[in-house]
């Protein structure tokens, strides 16, 4: 796609503007590094465009605070105090999700917490509460059978309005890949951990 020009133009009856305004479902998968990093880069672009951004992390402890979270939270505060960009929400699995904190039975069960989290996201999609969603490492609860893939695909395909969704994680289900508008598979060629080097601050988190 040189210079952002489509190689083919479908005969779908839509104008160029109408086609451009369609919502995007993106999937970043594969065994290489950079899936989440790319998604958060897209989230920063969305914030700059004034879109309402929401991040939901499915396999991150509520105690972990990664660099992207700090950066996006700062951008959210900038919006709140100066009206720049768009609003930002950041939620983590289990006790990091505010709507589950009072329910110890759910937060102690990761599968139940993942299902409850997806239920909340589905509700927000139906209400068009956000413009840009990052479902970080969401492929794992799908792969593990915690959340029904068919329900997820159906909900995402039928989502109303112009809500963009980016999903990250290895082993993305085929049905999700088939439904996506944009799919990128990261292939690892080399990684510092291959030679015994641990993750570094500023690189891994």
TrEMBL record:
Keyword Transferase in record: yes
Single biological process term from Gene Ontology: cobalamin biosynthetic process
InterPro entries found in the cross-reference section: CblAdoTrfase_CobA (IPR003724), P-loop_NTPase (IPR027417)
GO molecular function: ATP binding; corrinoid adenosyltransferase activity
Alphabetical UniProt keywords: Transferase
Start and end residues of each stretch annotated as Disordered: 1-21
PANTHER family with a match to the protein in the record: CORRINOID ADENOSYLTRANSFERASE (PTHR46638:SF1)
NCBIfam families membership: cobA (TIGR00708), PRK05986.1 (NF004637)
Identification of the protein by name: Cob(I)alamin adenosyltransferase
């Amino acid at each position: 796609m040189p210079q952002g020009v489509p190689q083919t133009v479908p005969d779908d009856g839509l104008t160029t503007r109408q086609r451009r305004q369609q919502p995007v479902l993106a999937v970043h998968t594969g065994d290489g590094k950079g899936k989440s990093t790319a998604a958060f880069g897209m989230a920063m672009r969305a914030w700059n465009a004034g879109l309402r951004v929401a991040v939901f992390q499915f396999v991150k402890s509520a105690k972990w605070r990664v660099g992207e979270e700090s950066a996006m939270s700062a951008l959210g505060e900038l919006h709140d105090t100066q009206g720049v960009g768009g609003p930002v929400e950041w939620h983590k699995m289990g006790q990091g999700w505010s709507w589950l904190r009072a329910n110890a039975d759910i937060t102690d069960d990761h599968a139940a917490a993942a299902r409850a989290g997806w239920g909340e996201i589905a509700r927000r999609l139906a209400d068009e509460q956000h413009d840009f969603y990052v479902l970080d490492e969401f492929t794992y609860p799908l792969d593990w059978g915690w959340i029904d893939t068919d329900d997820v695909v159906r909900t995402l395909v039928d989502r109303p309005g112009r809500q963009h969704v980016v999903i990250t994680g290895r082993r993305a289900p085929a049905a999700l890949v088939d439904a996506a508008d944009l799919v990128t598979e990261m292939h690892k060629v080399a990684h510092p951990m291959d030679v015994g080097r641990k993750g570094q601050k500023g690189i891994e988190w």
